[in-house]
Amino acid sequence: MQASQLGVFFDQVSIGLSQSNAEVRRLFHGRGKCWPGLEQLTCDWAANQLLVNLFKPVDETFMVALTQGLEDLSNSELWQQVQGKSIVLQHRYSDGAPTEVLLGELDKRPVVSELGCKYQLDIGRNQNFGLFLDIRNGREWVKDRAAGKRVLNLFAYTCGFSVAAIEGGAEHVVNVDMARASLNKGRDNHRLNDHDTSKVTFMAHDIFKSWGKIKKHGPYDIIIIDPPSFQKGSFALTKDYKKILRRLPELLNKQGEVMACVNSPSVTPSFLIDSMKEEAPTLAYIERLANPSEFADKDDDASLKVLLFR
């Protein structure tokens, strides 16, 4: 990380802020390696709060320049125009990802909007705040296609896809995730949007031990698979993803669609395409959804892969 490149960071953040609306949004994505010397730095805008993330330790020169630049931003006319409330720095490389409030008072549980939907974030307690911003286009795809359909949302986390689906008129959504606490947050997200939660099922189960229960709620018109790259004791990408794909034919309607996602830089789209041919040959690859422009990556294959099958 190079302090001499921080001018680029602040230029990009300022451009993002000047173009911002009320929606939650990534303003700077150094992790895509498009900005040399800033690869371990990101910045998000959420409920008038600037959330800066460091993914590796930096030297004192870099830290002083970063904090001084953020202070200068907070005193700018632009900051007043966007009604900025606070600036926080999260050290994602440290245990517990400690959060440092640099300016103002942090609202740890703000409600943000995206594509007409509301979500409650949880900032500062975990590495992730409850909504993955890079898969916004996937949520938009689901929302646009969900009307009258039954949707299965595997590895549901806080149910972002489910909220988008119900907002788009889905008949019913089944969310499956081992973490009951995440599903409870998903239920709260639905309530934030005044959704009829009788149209939503929350299953706090191990997917691999619950196929019978999952199948009982089908068949499904849309299946979403968005697993972690690795979760100790429960999911290993290259080994376990295929176990899911081979179940798809018995879960999916004949004209059904599958959104299969993978966010490991070590896995290319061909892994999913080839694995689908092997495990569920009746499903044909349609296309890869583009990631939001602010998540540009020097190596497209290393970025988030969102593939559609029918």
From TrEMBL:
The keyword Zinc does not apply. This is Class I SAM-dependent methyltransferase. Its EC number is 2.1.1.-. CDD domains: AdoMet_MTases (cd02440). One of its GO terms (biological process) is methylation. It comes from Vibrio barjaei. GO terms for molecular function: methyltransferase activity. It is an enzyme of class 2 (transferase). Gene3D superfamilies: Vaccinia Virus protein VP39. Keywords: Methyltransferase, rRNA processing, S-adenosyl-L-methionine, Transferase. It comes from the Bacteria. Residues 25-310 form the S-adenosylmethionine-dependent methyltransferase domain.
